[in-house]
Amino acid sequence: MSDNIILGIDPGVGSIGLFKRDIDKSDKLSEQLIGGSILTFPTGFTQKDNMKSLATERGDKRRGRNHIQSRKQCKWATLELLINLGMCPLSMEELDKWRKYDKNADIKHPYPTSQLFRAWLKCDFNNDGKPDFSMFELRNNLAIDKGIDLSTTIGKLMLGRVVYHMAIHRGFRSSKGDRATENQENRGIDEHEDLKGAEEGKAKEIKNIMQSYNLPTIGCALYYLNNIQKERIRASKYTIIAKQNKQELEYIFNLHEELGDNRLNMCKRIIKVVFKVKPLGSQKGNIGYCVFENNKQRAPKSRPEFEIYRAWSFINNIRDITNNKELSLDVKRKLFEQNFWKSETFKFGRISNFIKKELSNPQIKFNYEDNFEVSGCPILFLLKENSFLGEDWDTTSISIDKNESVENKKTNTK
Fold first, then answer.
1. Statement to judge: residues 119 and 219 lie in one domain
2. Of 149, 173, 274, 371, which residue has the fewest beta carbons closer than 10 angstroms?
3. Total domains present in the chain
């Protein structure tokens, strides 16, 4: 056998092709092949058409489980609040059996079997075995105030049933502009922002119904479509927005003065629980490890030290391609102090204009285009501009006496 034998390997998604070539045998490739084989193995994909990996399928199922658990937690939190407000006939013991795990129980997380609670779910408030209203009819009656006194026991149960219905069907909510939610909570209860993002297009049909027939709330519109027009609400062209449900609750609490002077604060408590959005999970576990110290993680992007490093790395890479030289240290320092303490990204054109003004040379050219996006230093900006530490935030130290803080906490608790 010749010594000039080459082993060829052709790796694929679901197989590996092997072949041997004897280059001394002939000059033609087809005659050099003296043997071959194919090894096949599972591809790691569940669907050949979509090429969906096992990890992707596992993630989809996990997200589905988390979604179901989030809906359950919303129901439990809403029921707990309604029980405390006297708007739900369920007892706290039965709710705890449903939401808390008991390893000694025969049935884990048993659904409440209270007859009053089952009747409340069916809108049977007089316990005659027959529903008194449909859900849309009840929401319409509360918004129009058809002689319903919400200060009575039955009236509170009706209001609680409407709140629980909204907790189950909260409606669509756009994630656009989530940073402004904190400011929205501090505003008056009668102020409403316009629909944002995809909400405007989705709510167009139902808004036209409300405007055409002068309906005050989304519940009245659903009652009109379902009970009068006999149109199907689910899986239809009508999309309910979460903000419309919030406005309906505020409208009902404003309308029924018999709930007392504290009704607006009660409404805020209910909205905070029913429409609570689960915060995003921390991503700090995804930070990579250092190249030089393998047992230590890199600095997060939100660290002030990393923002300084990123800014100076970019500044040191700026070159004057007209004269083929770097910037002077004084210009670099001024550039960092006057341009990078920003809370958002900005165009390189701002840096270009600044350097041209400093060097008094409008003809100078750089190795970056004017529309190149440059990252600012948002954490540094917040620490300097909005921090109670003031200008000396980076050198100020705060010492806290643990014993004193514990005593203050006990005093505040009392």
1. yes
2. 371
3. 3
Same domain, 205 and 314: no
- Residue 235: half-sphere exposure toward Cβ, Cα within 13 Å: 0
Orientation of helix 153-168 relative to helix 135-144, angle to 10°: 120
C-alpha dihedral (103, 104, 106, 108), degrees to nearest 10: -30
Helix 153-168 to helix 54-84 angle, to the nearest 10 degrees? Answer: 170
Question: Residue 299 falls within a domain, yes or no?
Answer: no
Which residue is associated with the tokens 């190249």?
291
* Amino acid identity at 65: R
Distant-in-sequence, close-in-space partners of 29: CB < 8 Å, separation ≥ 6: 21
Residue 178: phi, psi to the nearest 5? -65, -20
pLDDT tens digits for range 48-59 = 667 778 888 899
Can you give the three-state secondary structure of 155-200, one letter per residue?
HHHHHHHHHHHHHHCCCECCCCCHHHHHHHHCCCCCCCCCCCCCHH
Taking alpha carbons only, the member of 31, 21, 245 closest to residue 139 is 245
Whether 358 contacts 333, CB under 8 Å: no
Q: What backbone phi and psi angles, to 5 degrees, belong to 201?
A: -70, -40
Does residue 189 sit within a domain?
no
State phi, psi for 265 to the nearest 5 degrees.
Answer: -65, -35
The residues near 196 (Cβ < 8 Å, ≥ 6 apart) are: 174, 176, 177
Helix (H, G, I), strand (E, B) or coil at 11: strand
Residues 215 and 144: beta-carbon distance below 8 Å: no
Q: Is 409 helix (H, G, I), strand (E, B) or coil?
A: helix
More confident residue, 211 or 186: 211
Instruction: State the alpha helices, DSSP H only, in 318-385.
Output: 329-339, 348-359, 378-385
Residue 226 DSSP symbol: I
Asked if 134 and 262 sit in the same domain, the reply is: yes
Domain containing residue 32:
5-45
DSSP secondary structure code for residue 21 in this structure: E
* Same-domain pairing of 15 and 79: no
Q: What is the pLDDT of residues 14-38, one digit of tens each?
A: 889 998 888 888 888 888 888 889 9
